[in-house]
Amino acid sequence: MESILTAIGASLANLGAVIVLPIVITLLGLILGMKFTQAIRSGLTLAIAFVGINLTVGLLGSKMSEIGTAFSQNTGTGLDVVDIGWPAASALAFGTPVGNAIIPIGIVINIVMIFLGLTKTLDVDIWNFWHQAFIGAVVTFVTGSFALGLFAAAVTLIMALWLADWSQPIIEKYFKMPGISFPHLQSAGYMFLAAPFAVLLNKIPFLRKLKLDPDSIRKRIGILGEPIFLGLFIGVILAALAREDATSVITTGINVAAVMLLIPRMVGILMEGLTPVADAARKFMQKYAKGREIYIGLDSAVLIGSPAVIASGLLMIPAEIGLALLLSSVGNRTLPFIDLADGVFVTAMLAPLVAGDVLLTVILGSIVMGIGLMGATWLAPAVTDMVAKAGSIDIPAGYSNYTVMSDAAIPHSYIMYFIFKSPVMIAIVLSLVFMVFHYFISKKWTLGTKVLADAKETEAK
């Protein structure tokens, strides 16, 4: 059985998201009653949009990685655990036994949960199951057990679905994406940790009344507040602070301005392909499931077209370097490196918690990443072991201790790491309690209503 799951999972992982996603969407459309031509058009349109998003994010990421590297070198950190980045980490995760099994098991779990009414989210972003595979690999390292690693991965997959259900109302309201949710554990995990802090920030009148969201900024300073000019300004400032030459400063500014303009266009194309599928899903559920809601679960990359997300994500680069230095005195050993370009995935689901206020989003990002840097340090032995076992993988040279900020910094990663350092039965019970807690908050603490109500109440004072 394990060999069958391994073969299926490895095949799907090797195909990659751009190939798997249109196939999944086309099949889903056919199951939901769409005509073949409509279903395949939706699948292909979605794939094209993701190609555009990936190219645009790649443009941003390559330049931001250079700037992040320059920041790290210029500050002379002396930190001895280097961040290898999510591309290497995803390859490591999918290369483990847990990674090979998680996709088919995850699909089955998701379908069963929908059938039982335990989630509204149908996660079509199966490539990003690597986040759960990463946690499973960490637990396998701690316990030496493949079965416990797979159990931990399955538990975190269930929690990601409930986080997607929980955040869907506020995501739909802010990003205007009806019927879409985001079980992407990286961004959803940061949101899970940030939500209580967002409630506190939204109660501080001084911070709320600054109104540093993109719309308010644009109203105050006119054309200079438009997304492309905001991108140009932030890109130039970051490159200048990283001591880039004049040509690189200007190029960075133009690249960031391009991203500000292009990603929202790509998201528009994506929604063009996804809307017919979401409509078909609603009709299907009304007909066969007594009108129950169903959400289509996607990668949080869809959310980074928001100017607030991009602006705050870029500002996370110097913030994370500063946090790493500041926290070195209390035990941080992690040098932010490759995943410095990943700031937009940190802020993607934080911005709605504070109505898109860039300053408050950066504050939330700094809180979760401050804790996350410590988590990345704690998980370094497990990641270092994974690198050693993998043999050949593209990682930064000159280091012998490795971590990955994009995943080791997620609260679910370091919480599960500490849980499974306990005796086996205690670890299983604690992980199930952690899972049930997610179910409770998804049903009893309505995220959008609570957070936005606090924000509106503060603004009215």
Task: Please specify the SSE layout and strand pairing.
Layout: H1 2-15, H2 17-31, H3 36-75, E1 81-83, H4 86-94, H5 97-115, E2 121-123, H6 130-143, H7 146-175, E3 180-181, H8 185-201, H9 205-210, H10 214-221, H11 227-241, H12 246-288, E4 295-297, H13 307-327, E5 334-335, H14 343-347, H15 358-378, H16 380-390, E6 401-403, H17 405-408, H18 411-419, H19 424-444, H20 447-460
Parallel strand pairs: 1-5, 1-6, 2-4, 3-4
Shape: globular
Helical fraction: over 70%
Main beta sheet: 3 strands, parallel
Helices, by number, come to: 20
Structural domain count: 1
Oligomer: single chain
Order of helices and strands: HHHEHHEHHEHHHHHEHEHHHEHHHH
- Strand percentage lies at under 5%
Order of strands, main sheet, comes to 5-1-6
Quote the average pLDDT.
80
Question: Could you tell me the number of beta strands?
Answer: 6
Task: Supply Rg.
Answer: 21 Å
Polypeptide structure, described:
This protein is mainly alpha-helical and 461 residues long. It has 20 helices and 6 strands. It has one domain (2-460). The chain has helices at 2-15, 17-31, 36-75, 86-94, 97-115, 130-143, 146-175, 185-201, 205-210, 214-221, 227-241, 246-288, 307-327, 343-347, 358-378, 380-390, 405-408, 411-419, 424-444, 447-460, and strands spanning 81-83, 121-123, 180-181, 295-297, 334-335, 401-403. The longest helix is centred in the middle third of the chain and has 43 residues, at 246-288. The chain is globular. The model is unreliable at 453-461 (pLDDT under 50).
